[in-house]
Write a structure and sequence with these properties.
The complex is a heterotrimer.
Chain A: H1 8-17, H2 29-33, H3 44-52, H4 56-63, H5 67-70, H6 76-80, H7 87-100, H8 109-125, H9 130-141, H10 150-156, H11 170-179
Helix pairs in contact in A: 8-9, 8-11
Chain B: E1 3-5, H1 8-12, H2 16-28, E2 33-35, H3 44-50, H4 52-68, E3 73-76, H5 79-94, H6 96-106, E4 115-118, H7 119-127, H8 131-134, E5 142-145, H9 155-158, H10 168-175, E6 179-180, H11 194-197, H12 199-215, E7 220-223, H13 226-234, H14 236-243, E8 251-253, H15 254-261
Helix pairs in contact in B: 2-15, 3-4, 4-5, 4-6, 5-6, 12-14
Chain C: E1 4-9, H1 21-29, E2 34-40, H2 46-59, E3 63-68, H3 71-84, E4 92-96, H4 98-102, H5 109-128, E5 135-138, E6 142-146, H6 150-161, E7 165-170, E8 184-185, E9 190-191, H7 192-205, E10 209-213, E11 215-223, E12 226-233, H8 248-252, E13 258-259, E14 268-269, E15 272-273, E16 285-286, H9 292-296, H10 301-305, E17 318-324, E18 326-329, E19 333-335, E20 352-354, H11 355-362, E21 383-390, H12 406-420, E22 425-430, H13 440-449, E23 454-457, E24 462-466, E25 469-476, E26 482-488, E27 490-495, E28 497-499, H14 503-510, E29 537-539, H15 549-567, E30 571-574, E31 579-581, H16 597-601, E32 607-613, E33 620-627, H17 637-641, E34 647-649, H18 654-665
Parallel strand pairs in C: 1-2, 1-3, 3-4, 6-7, 6-18, 7-10, 18-29, 20-27, 21-22, 21-27, 22-23
Antiparallel strand pairs in C: 5-30, 8-9, 11-12, 12-17, 13-14, 15-16, 19-28, 24-25, 25-26, 31-34, 32-33
Helix pairs in contact in C: 1-5, 2-3, 5-18, 6-7, 6-15, 11-12, 12-13
The chains are: A mainly alpha, B alpha/beta, C alpha/beta.
């Protein structure tokens, strides 16, 4: 029986995600196969170790890292992990915690702005309109000129839709957002 | 047999040629694909990165609607949607408390018995047998089949093909006369949802993929995911800049490849909408 | 009227800490049938045993109960003491007051009462105990050793040198096993074949050893001391009594492209072949699956050239039966092949090889005559990557255990490579270094400090081929999980040690237990590492678990001693705790009706059929069940299964057990 007083962080992760990070024996295969490991401040196996120490200081390092926002859940890590530790599920949890505790790394601002814009559009119409999402994203990040060069060719190829497509029962969607406590 | 169709947001937007090619292929083979009425966005990466329950509720609504509309099977061409729908169905079947909670959020009953097919499974099941008879323009090229991440992982849930060195698309391409090459980036991530927020990283990841395929002599990269297509095709200028090269290998959807092989017109398959010209084929 | 003695042990403080031993003895002394009761601090000690013996004589006791630790500890001790005092040892029973009472409860009134109850129940049982005598079983003085690797060779020699006869069977054409495939062995780096072949020759020439190669166990019947083994001698297509080992046939055989098993697929052999030059016996066999004559009816060139006419086609497999007293299983292990690994290419890349294949490259008698060369183009690799823990310690791949020998042989391989290719660069990706044996740690340090092997702590995610090089994507966890990419010329996988193919079938043929990985099960992991749970069958070597040569040889010698101790007795003495089918006067003869349900349920195949015949006419009156006291393990399953209640268990009879239970219920 692992006492939760001495293992607060790992117990919390286990309760919320079902994943026991203590299974990880630090082999590093996940990091070795992670396509973005070179760009992460804390690669995945390192994050597992930081969590295993159950130290608040290390936990804060993880929650305020850029790594958790670079991870795209490509699932290469769990595909190869010999102990079948579900790292992507833990990453999802760490991201949610990071937002909840307002510890999101400043380097991750563009990434999280993208997600917020995406979900914002879905909340109102139920379907994603890429044009509106991009506008929302640019307003959050001030990256006003990003991808502007693409616009003419995309117009020509008929890939830009300016009318927001909406589902009929939009109240269903707003109910979902409300009931799952999503802002 | 009624086949449901879930296009997802990208097929209605920037990846409309994928939608066109799937529909054209189905029409040419007399297969009826009926849109799920009032479908909503599955939430994709944004939802599961921010809120777990939201990321399960959005796809659950889609599946519940499909059940209600009497579909036993649905075809989901977008690999990300396919992945999210499958994960939602799996998670809700494993955790009863969670299932009740999500059913409460979506307000529709949900049994979790719809069979979710990705585009490769759809072709395998409904199209493959008709192909040999219908091929009149054999696709005689060396091709690199790119599976990406979300079609084959996590294997425990999707149970589709194999995680390392998958072969399902390769086998289909052989049927239309292509020669699928053995290459090293079949399942390495293209950068996915970082396309907008971190285009620099996508340039690197997708660049490695395109370079390996080109180095090994591929004349086309075959994909089954609109995100992958976008990163390998639309982001080609950034890739070229990162690699300091000019790679002209086109990226085409498997439905477009098969469509071409059975004699459908390139315009019907939306090939003119690609950024990297497909005329090199 | 019973005269039982009750002796309650304090077991130091183990029992007396929670149980009031004095009181238990006092209460026991007041039970009907108990003549004498006392308590003592250490009953198993000499004075304690003397106490029992004296009491037996002074009080003419006809039954003894010792309230002490588990009978598994000292039942034999106390029974021997009783026996020395003239009391039948099976009139002595142990009340387990320690594991069943004092150790599992707190100190309280209830605990002491429980101890009293246990003793009371047992008193009622012992009142019904009958004196029993040990069973004598004759022993055939011959051993069978299955598997001719180093373990089998060592065991055979040890048994034979004690003057006992041995039959050694080996399923391949030659003995030697994996050790004959190795180049040099750790930690001494001495030549494997040089130390092995003298022993192989000794086996072949030993007067007490009969060697059958190309032979397998077909069936094993019987029980300890009295086995009957049926051995299949596979048809070699060569008459060994005529063959002179000239080797002409192997040079003339036209079929030269069969991957050699001895060279792990890296070299070729012919259809008629001797697996390696130092093979014992050094005579060829014909591989029927590839021979042109057997497959297509053509060729027969070998018989045309053979100077002594030793080739004999179309001979069937021969079967021989041997009476055996004991069996030693030394069938060894195998290693996983590269096609098991999806992330390392599913076996596609020629230059990704296993450790055993590397041994063949490094071996002077190997396909490259000892030069390390790439299987793909024969070039000498300048950069080699060794990957440890391939498959081992990997629950996702179904192999959670450690294969024990890989850390050492990987260090050895890297060292051999550095010795042969001075400007070569070797990198080992490891998780931990397991080097616990004598001189093992120093050996690994030598690799790092003297031979310049580069150790990187981390695992490799994948290996793929590009432009003739193998790209290895690993990580260095000691540098904060920094990705490491190496363009290697060759990759050597230290693949997991696994049970041999056919291990499960063999275990089932011999009725021995095996674990989920098909390694054979030892009787006790610490105290009985070379015995199985099946009496008379012993284990040695890697068939039980992956192990290195020193341990294998030690285990083989250990198993040999167990065999010799068995065979050196004229009779085996077995505990009489066996089931017995009742017999009574004619015309009934027995309440057994001959339904033989017991035969279907007995896990030890101990039920036989006995025909009751009319003594004058010889006609069979009825066939009833008979329990073989040599095989019966006293489990009691047949007793509970028998519909007519015709079977009873000696030492734990229905009457005795009923009395004990009733006594407990009536308190």
């Amino acid at each position: 029986m692992i006492s939760s007083e001495n293992h607060i962080i790992t117990s919390q992760i286990k309760d919320n995600t079902g994943v026991d990070v203590n299974l990880c024996y630090q082999c590093g295969k996940c990091t070795a196969g992670c396509v973005l490991a070179d760009d992460m401040d804390y690669p995945s196996s390192y994050i597992m170790r930081l969590l295993q120490t159950n130290e608040e200081g290390n936990y804060l390092k993880v929650l305020s890292s850029n790594a958790i926002w670079l991870c795209v859940n490509c699932e290469n890590c769990i595909g190869r992990c010999p102990k079948e530790v579900d790292i992507p599920v833990v990453m999802d949890y760490l991201r949610a915690e990071s937002v909840k505790r307002k510890l999101v790394s400043s380097k991750a601002k563009p990434v999280i702005s993208f997600y917020k814009s995406f979900l914002g559009i879905i909340k109102s119409t139920g379907r994603l309109n890429e044009v509106f999402m991009t506008i929302s994203y640019k307003m959050r990040t001030f990256r006003l000129w990003q991808d502007v060069k693409l616009v003419p060719s995309m117009l020509l190829k008929g890939k830009l839709k300016f009318w927001p497509e909406s589902i009929k029962r939009r109240s269903d969607i707003s109910a979902i957002f409300r009931k799952t406590n999503s802002k | 047999m009624k086949l449901g169709f879930y296009p997802g947001c990208s097929l209605k937007g920037t990846s409309r040629e994928y939608n066109e090619s799937v529909k054209a292929l189905a029409a040419a083979l007399d297969i009826e694909l009926k849109d799920i009425e009032d479908w909503n966005c599955c939430g994709a990466t944004a939802a599961h990165s921010m809120n777990k329950e939201l990321s399960l509720a959005l796809p659950a609504r889609v599946l519940a609607l499909a059940e209600k509309q009497g579909f036993e099977e649905i075809v989901v061409p977008c690999a990300s949607c396919y992945n999210r729908l499958s994960v939602a169905q799996y998670e809700l079947s494993e955790d009863e408390d969670l299932r009740h909670k999500i059913i409460d959020s979506i307000g529709i009953s949900f049994a979790g018995n719809v069979n979710i097919l990705n585009v490769v499974q759809f072709i395998d099941k409904y199209v493959k047998d008709m192909i040999p008879a219908k091929v009149n323009h054999p696709f005689n090229y060396d091709v690199a089949c790119y599976y990406g991440c979300l079609l084959v992982r996590p294997h425990k849930i999707l149970k589709f093909d194999r995680v390392e060195d998958p072969t399902s698309m390769d086998e289909l391409m052989k049927l239309i006369g292509a020669n699928p090459i053995d290459w090293a980036y079949k399942t390495e991530c293209c950068g996915a949802g970082l396309s907008v927020s971190r285009t620099d990283l996508v340039a690197k990841l997708s660049g490695n993929i395109v370079k390996d395929a080109a180095d090994r002599g591929a004349k086309a990269i075959i994909v089954a995911c609109p995100m992958c297509h976008s990163n390998l095709d639309m982001r080609r200028p950034q890739i070229d800049q990162y690699l300091n090269e000019n790679i002209t290998v086109p990226v085409i959807y498997i439905t477009q490849a098969i469509g071409l092989a059975i004699g459908l017109k390139p315009e019907a398959l939306g090939l003119q909408r690609h950024f990297v010209k497909v005329t090199t084929l | 009227m019973s005269r039982i003695g009750v002796f309650i042990c304090h077991c130091g403080e183990n029992i007396s800490a929670t149980v009031d031993c004095e009181r238990v003895a006092k209460e026991a002394g007041q039970l009907e049938g108990v003549e004498f009761a006392t308590d003592y601090k250490y009953m198993c000690s000499d004075p304690g045993q003397s106490l029992i013996k004296t009491a037996i004589k002074e009080h003419q006791l006809d039954g003894v109960i010792v309230g002490s630790c588990s009978p598994r500890m000292h039942e034999a001790t106390f029974r021997r003491a009783c026996s020395e005092a003239g009391l039948n040892p099976y009139m002595c029973e142990i009340a387990n007051l320690r594991e069943h009472c004092s150790w599992v409860h707190e100190k309280s009134e209830a605990t002491t009462l429980k101890a009293i109850e246990i003793v009371t129940g047992l008193v009622e049982k012992v009142k019904r105990n009958k004196p029993l005598n040990t069973i004598k079983v004759p022993v055939t003085k011959k051993a069978l050793v299955i598997g001719g690797g180093i373990a089998g060779i060592q065991a055979s020699l040890d048994i034979a040198n004690c003057g006992q006869k041995v039959i050694l069977i080996e399923k391949g054409p030659s003995i030697g096993g994996h050790m004959s495939q190795l180049s040099e062995t750790f930690p001494t780096l001495d030549c494997s074949q040089c130390i092995l072949t003298p022993r192989m020759v000794e086996v072949a020439q030993h007067p007490n050893i009969t060697l059958y190669t190309y032979a397998e166990l077909e069936k094993l019947e019987g029980f300890v001391g009295n086995f009957k083994a049926t051995i299949r001698l596979k048809a070699k297509s060569v008459d060994y009594s005529k063959c002179t080992s000239c080797g002409l046939c192997t040079t003339k055989c036209p079929n030269k492209k069969i991957p050699s098993e001895f060279n792990e697929g890296l070299g070729m052999r012919t259809s008629i072949y001797v697996p390696f030059p130092q093979a014992v016996p050094n005579k060829p066999v014909i591989d029927k699956e590839h021979c042109l004559y057997y497959q297509k009816g053509k060729c027969k060139i070998c018989s045309k050239f053979c100077p002594t006419g030793a080739i004999e086609y179309d001979k069937p497999d021969e079967f021989i039966t041997e009476e055996i007293g004991a069996v030693v299983v030394t069938t060894g292990f195998n290693v996983l092949h590269t096609d098991f690994f999806p992330e390392y290419g599913y076996g596609k890349y020629k230059d990704v090889i296993t450790g055993l294949q590397f041994e063949r490259l490094a071996s002077a008698s190997g396909p490259t005559l000892g030069e390390i060369r790439r299987p793909s183009d024969g070039q000498i690799p300048k950069k080699i990557v060794f990957i440890a823990c391939c498959g081992s310690r990997d629950p996702a791949k179904g192999i959670p255990y450690c294969s024990k020998i890989c850390c050492m042989y990987t260090a050895k391989h890297a060292m051999l490579y550095q010795h042969k290719v001075h400007d070569g660069q070797s990198t080992i990706f490891y998780m931990d270094i397991r080097a616990g044996g004598k001189n093992y740690e120093e050996f690994v340090r030598r690799a790092i400090e003297e031979d310049g092997v580069n150790y990187v702590r981390g695992r490799v995610a994948r290996v793929y081929e590009k432009n003739g090089k193998l790209i290895v994507k690993g990580v260095d966890t000691l540098l904060g999980a920094e990705p490491v990419e190496i363009e290697a010329d060759m990759v050597v996988l230290a693949t997991a040690g696994v049970a041999n193919e056919g291990a499960e079938d063999l275990a089932q043929k011999m009725h021995i237990s095996y674990d989920p990985y098909h390694f054979f099960a030892e009787a006790h992991p610490k105290l009985k590492p070379v015995e199985t749970n099946t009496a008379g069958i012993f284990l040695a070597g890697a068939c039980q678990a992956p192990k290195d040569i020193p341990e294998t040889v030690a285990a083989a010698s250990g198993a040999a001693v167990k065999v010799v101790s068995l065979l050196s007795q004229d009779n085996l003495v077995r505990e009489p705790i066996v089931a017995v089918v009742n017999r009574c006067a004619p015309p009934m003869f027995s309440t057994c009706v001959g339904c033989f349900m017991c035969e279907t349920i007995c896990p030890y195949h101990a039920i036989e059929r006995e025909e009751i015949k009319d003594r004058r006419t010889g006609k069979v009156i009825k066939t009833i069940a008979k329990i073989n006291p040599g095989l019966c393990q006293g489990c009691g399953t047949c007793v509970s299964f028998c519909r007519s209640k015709s079977i009873d268990l000696q030492g734990f009879s229905n009457e005795e057990m009923f009395a004990e239970v009733t006594a407990l219920l009536n308190r």
